[in-house]
Amino acid sequence: MGMTAVQKILARASGLAQVKPGDIVEPEVDSMMAHDFSCRTTRNLWKEYGFKKVKNPDMFLIADDHYFSAPNAAGTELLAANKAWVSSQSIKHYYEGGEGVCHQLTPEKGLVWPGAVVMGLDSHATYYGAFGAFSTGIGTLDGAVALATGRIWMKVPESMRITLNGAPKECVMPRDVMQHLIKTMGEDVALYLNVEYEGSYIKALPMNWRTVFATMALELGGKSGFIAPDETTVAYLKGRVDRAYEMVFSDADVVYRSEYNIDVSGIGPQVSPPELSQSGHVSEFEGIEINQAAIGGCVAGFIEDLRLAARIMKGRKVKPGVRFYIMPGTRECYLQILKEGIAGLFIECGAHIYPPSCGPCQAVNMGYLPKGEVQISTIPRAYAGRGGSIHSMTYMGSPLTVAASALEGKITNPERLF
Amino acid sequence: MEKIVRGKAWKFPDNFPTDLITPKERLSDPFPEMAKHVFETYDPEIAKGIKRQDMLVGGHLFGCSSSRIAAVKVLAFIGIGAVVAESMARIFYRNCISLGIPAMECPGIAAMVSTGDELEVDIGTGVVRNLTTGKTIETDPVPEYALKIMEQGGIVPFMQQRGLLELE
Predict the structure, then answer these.
(1) Are A137 and B91 within 8 A, CB to CB?
(2) In this complex, do A138 and B66 lie within 8 Å of one another by their Cβ atoms?
(3) ipTM score of the complex?
(4) How far off is chain B from A313, nearest CA to CA, in Å?
(5) What is the distance between the alpha carbons of residues A317 and A319, in angstroms, rounded to a whole number?
(6) N or C, which terminus of chain B has less Cβ within 10 Å?
(7) Which helix (H) or strand (E) covers residue A45, if one does?
(8) Where are the alpha helices (DSSP H) in chain B?
(9) B60 in A contact zone (CB under 8 Å)
(10) Which residues from chain B sit within 8 angstroms of residue A122, using beta carbons?
């Protein structure tokens, strides 16, 4: 029987001809990433255990993204200590607050390519599988070992395959399709599995939107997500990755743990409470009044999201009293929305633009949701107490649903305004 | 390394997040302090009674949510003998192995253990005995590679001993 792409990648990186699911191997790690918080934990462990030098300091990206700026003394101390450690290790790809969300920056800065083994010190490191790489999150002690030795132990996962064909209405976004998948299949359908996505719907997506599926494989319980690379991938990486790479594909005779074939044409806009398995058509949530709305985070804030949001917001105003926060995912994206007039439109409508960062996801710098308040946001994780009071409520939805809701002051089907 | 662990069980429900082992407000605590408050936001009685060699028994997806290593380091500090659960969030599982805490997935365990039961866990064979009720269950033993990591006391000594990691 043939091997999946992920098996092939792990085999190559481990110096083996063949691997099978369940094998524990020790792949060489091509690149790694962390954010301000996991960098803090890593450097503390580094000191505690007495680690010496980061083996490949050019292949480790750290981005301050929970903080876009230190709002207090404790924040400055954390960031300053990160910076000092980064400097002592000659780490090249260190991005201070405002440059972007860590996951969006890692491929932007050229640390991801087809066939790469990318280890992340954050659970949403499943992001990079969208580029045909093998990528997953590991804890900070494993991370320190990987940084020091260039290797880490990894159990080879089985794969499941999700084939998505058809095309939904233009106002139905990847986030809607993904929430529908989680609702249909459950939050543990992909436990310990690599989730392969393919089909005409996936193929037609721009690179940024493909990442939504890879990243949120985590929310299906998955270990990693994977989308076969193609000309879209190559075009994105051109000028960003300056090394040769080999695209890796699953063999035709692979047996998947499970397979799903879904026509996405009929899927409508979705809204979810904190439990993503409880996601439903927006009509089940319409009318719920909101105090706050946010577009941004690791699965949104892409240029494609913001262009669509601008279309629905043009000529309209945010409902007075609603705080509508928009975080472009990276500085590159921020420059782009300025050039295209989108940023100006957002401000004219009454939205607020915040620096590229995680924004209100954990409310480290801004966006704390107080007791009794309700928000709708594009972030992927919304359990009570994460981004505000344990007595506040966060719903999740696509950038368009969030924008439509901000305009109306209540959860709204974007189809009404599109 | 002693592959048979014996101790009192503490039982937890499905989807038990690391945030309930150590909430983010306590992440900067020194470990002796963190240990005094372990599981406090879930059940303040646990920290008072939990001791060395006691075991955690979880339901589905034990250790889910945040990948914070502090939640596992505090368990190592306390001297938890083993973690056995219906299933475990994979980063939590990795953190246990890397810190030398025996961790095993054992479908069916939740139904046969209550808090206070005396358990005997053989990580080499995968046999779990409830000494209080007399019931026994068998699961896949801890993989060879993970056993080697645990034998050395965790991933750092394991890599060091193989000459792959140099420390100060």
Answers:
(1) yes
(2) no
(3) 0.91
(4) 35
(5) 6
(6) C
(7) helix A36-49
(8) 31-36, 44-49, 70-78, 90-98, 109-112, 144-151, 155-161
(9) yes
(10) 67
Over residues A375-399, the pLDDT tens digits come to: 999 999 888 888 999 899 999 999 9
Residue with the two structure tokens 């889910």? B64
Q: pTM for this one?
A: 0.95
Q: In this structure, what token pair is assigned to residue A60?
A: 């480790």
Contact A311, A399 (CB under 8 A): no
| pLDDT per residue as tens, chain B (168 positions) | 778 999 999 999 998 999 899 987 888 889 999 999 999 989 999 999 999 999 999 999 999 988 889 999 999 999 999 999 999 999 999 999 999 999 999 999 999 999 999 999 999 999 999 999 999 999 999 999 999 999 899 999 999 999 999 999
A129: its two tokens? 């599988």
To the nearest whole Å, the CA of B157 is away from the closest chain A CA by 10
Q: Do A52 and B166 touch (CB under 8 A)?
A: yes
Rounded CA-CA distance B1/A150 in Å is: 28
- Tell me if B156 and A142 make a contact (CB, 8 A cut-off): no
> Any CB–CB contact under 8 A between B127 and chain A?
no
Q: How many CB pairs under 8 A join A and B?
A: 71
B123, B141 Cβ separation under 8 angstroms: yes
- Phi/psi region, residue A350 (left: phi>0; alpha: psi -120 to 50; beta: rest), is left
Q: What single-letter amino acid sits at A243?
A: R
Asked if A21 has any chain B CB less than 8 Å from its own CB, the reply is no
